[in-house]
Each structure stands twice: as structure tokens, then as C-alpha cells.
Task: structure prediction
Amino acid sequence: MITRRHFGSVAAGAIAAAQAGDAFAQAPRKGGDAILAIAQAPPSLDAHITSAQASRNVTLHMYETLFARDENATPVPELAEGVNISADGRTYTFPIRKNVKFHNGKELDAKDVAASIDRYRKVGASPALVSAIDKIDASGASELTIRLKQPQSTFLDNISSPRAPIAIYPASEAAKEAGKIEYIGTGPYKFVEYKPDSHVKITRYDGYAFNPKGKQERDGFAGKKEAFIDTVTFRFMPEMGARVSAMEAGEIHHNETVDGPTAKRLASDKRFTIYKVLPFAVQAIKFNQAKAPGSDVNFRLAVQAALDMEEIMGISYADIYQLDASWLYPGHAFYSKAGAEKYNKADLKLGKELLAKSGYKGEKLTFITDAFRPNVDVATVFQQRLKDIGVNVEVAVNDWPTVSKVGFTPTGWDFWTHGIGIEPYEGPGSVMAIWVNGLSQGGAKDPKIDDLAQKFAAEPDEAKRRALFAEFQQYMYDAAVCMKAGNFGQFQVATAKLKNFTPYRIPRMWGAWLEA
Amino acid sequence: MGRYLARRLAGAAIVLFLVSLMTFAMIWLVPGDPASAFLDASATPEQVARLRTALGLDKSLPLQMLDWYGRVLRGDLGQSILLNRSVAAALMERLPVTLSLAGFALVFAVFFGVAAGTVAAVNHNRWPDQVVMTAALFGLSTPDFWLGLVLVLVFAVELGWLPSGGFVALMDNPLGWLRSITLPALTLGLVQVGFIARMARASMLEALSQDFVRTARAKGLSRFTVVVRHSLPNALIPILTVIGIVAGALLGGAVIIEQVFSVPGVGRLIIGAIAARDFPVMQGGLLFLAVLYLFVNLVVDILYAVVDPRVRLV
Result:
């Protein structure tokens, strides 16, 4: 970086030297042990069986998938060379890349891929991703054929999802039960050790072969995954205070998440770089539609009209939020503004009018939330706002297993708030799936949503699918199925020694290096 | 001594049974189950049912209880849902960590607590007494997690002398172990120093007022000999019982401190299991802590009876 001071005080030759020096400083350097603090321990390093963020943080460094997501979350070939889809949309033929070696030295072939996807069908944590598959065949040493029960336009989206990644294991591992595998993949890092409640260590895999047809740079979860760092240690540190202290003491290089005030404080310290990861998730406020008054559309519309989303997001996620009506993140190909006219109305008068049309009689309603501070803030602001239109809300705070158990049943709650991060990243099919079969409405099925999701999955034409998603989003607002408060982000902190790092949905340790 | 021991053992067995009963009941009163915590929301009902069957959650509560007691009596604490290993193995893996943490803290607390209490008693109502008692009160009323963060700020962040968290096994690197264990153990121990100091002071004051002390002084023995050789051993008897309580408090405190300092001990294992509703680990872990606590108290009771024969007659 050339600063004004350089221009004022140094001759032109010196500037050139400074530039050269800077370029030299930016040259990748191999070596070092990057220590990353993550808030939770991975429940498993068997990528198939868990959709936990903590597992993804580690496993996406070790394993690869047939297709992966690029920087804009579009599926692109990773271990496949490409794909041929039959005219009826039911047969997918994948040429498999040659000269790719697993961490145990075995060369990848179509049988490994077939066995891995087959295993996912049995033990995968997100079974919906592979539910359309009828048959999988290794039709040649380097060719895989998948036959679907019915055409599914989101099939490539599904198999490239990083949610509970359909990691490709050697066929010998894929034959093993859930959680019993050796951690062997084809990714740029290989497994070293997992000390429960302490850390996971991975080391650079020098036999890694990146996709020559992919982007020759870091590209989402795809592209060239060039590892410079020797070893990466993920330390499990649940306490934010402990993570920040460790960062300040110089013991860790990257901190998965800190709160706004801490980020502001550390921003003035030259030893650190603050990364704003925005959007990271959508803040949703769900209605229980299985019982009154959530089953009453006028009640839901009244609540939707009354809420001031700027107030909710500003208090809950100060300095790191976006007001946005869309259920997808900005930049996604299917991003739509449909329904935006009903978003963030903050209209108490309209709220009262709609409430009067509803069957609500002043009974006490329960707003459930886990103890994550911003979620509690959302619930509290919501409670105060609804008081102004005459809705009586009590807030019940519990731990996540309790809240999620209650929230997926038809009783014990009226409102529920939490973040939804991976689905808007994955795309429209995943976002719609949250509401299919009444999954997130207390079990009250919504025929309109179920129909739209079905049509969407069967529709091969992209323009028509785009229109279907816009129709879905419009309906989310017209029927106030669930309220989106806004997008929120995450402050990550890294030591200034971590060079060429760009945050994404996991802290990618490829493309980045550690300064000596 | 035999009858005394039998009485204590029978008492311990009853407490253990009650603890296990309460643990079992408490766990089943908590909503949320491992199937929902472990599987994705998109899991099919069949998958959830399969997991519930595998975990034995589909059986009736009395049956599950009988199952559990049957296995515990055979020394089998079951299989962890999340960790892919037996509960006993997981506990044994973490036990040395927690024991080294609590043990270090206990030695620290006893040594400094007894020393501070003795200094206070010998200087009764003079400034060293007041300083020690004020410090003890401060220590007693300080929450250990807060103290932990302050120590980290001073010794890890500002001075850079010790690591802020993490754990190095003794066998891997003894110096690394000492460095990693010092801050969490000091945090745990400091609060107890205050407690022991107050007890030691009171007990020492009583010992110092005894006739034999007066006699020893009259014989012309040095002050040091009177205090350390004659008064202290007598004052230590009541302190011994306190050590039992302190050891229990340290084991309980370790649960929180392990979380603050990211130390992979039994406490962290149990907290993680609660968050994930890993029932076998929750049940096995809590029972294990209860056994440990009872064992420590039993040892203290026996020592007490050895040191003071009058106790056996009670």
C-alpha cells in the first residue's frame, strides 16, 4: 500500500522499491501452524452424518464432493469433470476426474463415488438431498451414472451442498457404519488427530490434485485449493472471552466470531484484521400455525405490519445487519424483491386494524428462544412492539435442544426466532424446503407452499423456476408465513500475520498463508 | 474402626443410589432429545425412529431405568451418542485432566490457606490478621469464572507468561503441562484459600489457647516451635474435614473453570453432553462425579478417624 506519507517524503525510486518490497511481502509463503478458535467442537468428522457448522469448518478442508459451490454458491464440478443430463432429466452421467489420489494413496474411481453417495442415502444427516435418487452405478472406471425417481431441477444443488457434505470417501471407508470411518478424503488437508474437547489438527496434503478445469484461484468451496500452511489446528473454545484473550495473547490466528463491541475495540489494534461476514444468516421469526392465533392469517398479517425490522435488527445485531426482504442473499441468481412492499412496514395503525379482524382475544402468547443473546434481544423488542397493538407476549428462554424440540411440535409455542444461514446460501430449493409439510409452522401444512416447491423441483426451465421462487416469496409475505427480520453477519478477527485470507462460510485455509 | 468404616460405606452407598435416582429423573424431566439434537430437521421420521431405537429411547421409562442400573452394576456406563466410544473410556480419558487440575488447586489452597490462617492467628487482632482476613473475604466472595478472566488478562494477555487456555498432557510435555494447568488451578484454588484460611485461623486460635501451649511456652520453647510443632498439628484436625468439603467444591468448580480455560476435563465432557442431550454421558458423568466426591469424603473421614481416635467412638 502506498500512503500519502510515502509520496510526500520519499523520491520516486524509493516508491518503486517500496512497491517491490510490498509485492515481495505479498508472495505466498509455505509453512506454519495456523491455530483457529472455533466456538463448538465438531460432533463428528464423518462429514455425512452431521450438519453442524463446527464439523463443516474442519471437514471441508479434508474431503471433496462430486460438485461443489463456487463463490456465488453455484454448483460447479469438483471431483467430476462435468455432467451430462438425459433429455428426460432423470439420468445424470458424471465423468470422474482422473489422477486424483486419496490421502491413503489410492486413486479415485467411480466405485468410490458410487459407494459414498450410496452410504449417504443410508446415514446422511440431510436425507432430502438424495431422496430423488433411484439408482447409482459405476458405469465405467471413471464414469458414474445416477438415475432419479423423477426429474429434480435442484439435484446438482443438492449434491454440492456443504450442509452435511456428500463427501467422497474411498469405497472401503464408505462401506463402514456412521461414525466408524477413517478420515480419508481427497482435499488439500489430511487428518492428523482429534483430541475430544481440545482440538483437531490437519496437515497439508502434498498429493492434492486440484481441478484443472475449475477456476485457478480460490472460488467458494471449489476452485484451486492451494494450501500453503503446513498444519491447521482448530481449537474448541466455547467462551468468547477466552477466544478473545487467546487472540490478544497471540495464541490463535483466527477467531470464528466476536461481538460488535469487541470487534470495534480490536479494530484499533494493528495486530489484528477485522472481517465483516455479511450476510451470514437470515433472522427469522416463525409463527406456530398449528393453533390459534398463529393459524389466523389476519393475526399473522397484523404482526407483520406492526413490526419495525430496523429496530429489531439494530438492537440485536448492532453494526452488522442488512434490511432486506429477500429470502436469498444479494447476488444470488434467483434473488427477488417480491413481497418487499409488505416488509418492514412498522405500521402500528395497520397492525391494530388487522388484529381487530383476527380472532385474537388478548390471551398470553409464548415466544420461545434459545439463550443466544441476539435471539433474546429479538424476542424482547418483538414483545415490546406487539404490546403497542395489544398483543400479550411472554418470552421463554431455554437451551437449544429444548427450544428446537418444542419448536418442531404443534404445542408449547406461538413465536420462535433464530437464524437460518445455510439454506439461503444453498439457494431457492433449500429455502422452500424449510416450509414444506409444515415443517417450520408447527406442523400445519400449507398446500400452496407444498405445491410451489414440487413445481419448482420438477421445472427444468430456469426462467420459470425463477418466477416460481418469486411467487413463493410473494406468498411468504401475502400470507405472513414467517417474518424475515433482516440479514445478520458475523465479525471474525484474524491476526494481521494471516495473509490473503478471505472469509466465507467456513474459514478456508487454502489460498492464505502465515507471515513468518 | 471396622464398624466405623462399615457405617461410612453403607452411608455412601445410600447416597450413591439416591444421586443416581435423581440424576436419572432429572435427565428425563429435561425436554429435548438426542435424536432431534443430532439429526437435521429434514431427517425422515424413520431415521429419527431408528436412532431412538438404537439409543433405547423407545422403551418405557422403568425399563430404561432397569436397563441402566443393570449395566452400571456390571460396570458398563453405556455408549456415548456423539463421541463414538464408551462413556467409561471417555471419562477415563478426561479424568487425569480434571484430577490434575483439582489436585493442583487443592495443594495450593491447603498450603496457602493454612499458612495465611496461621499467620493471622499468631498475629491475632493485629494488622497481619486484618490484612489476611480481608483478603480471605475478598477471595471467598469472588466468582471463580471472573477471577479466571482477570488472571488471563494479567498473566496471559499483558505479561504473556502463561497460556490463556488449552491443555498439554503431563506425559507429552511436563513443563507444558505445568504452564497450561497453572492459571486454571490458581483460579480454582484462590477462592478456596480464603475459606481454608478462615477455618485455619479459628482452629489455630483455639489451639493456641490450650493449656499445653501455655505449658510449652512456660518451658521456654521458641515461638516457632510452639506454633509449628505443638499447635499446628492439633489445629489441623478440624481443617482435615474442611479439606473434604474443599475437594468437593474444587471438583464442582472445575466444571466451570474447564469451560473458561478450554481444558478438556470431565466437566467439559458433561457440559458438552448436556448441550447435545448425550444422555449416557450425562448419566455416567454425573454418577462418576458423585462417586469421586463420595470417595474423597470417605478418605477424609477415615483420615479423620486415624488422626483423632475419639471420632471412631461417635
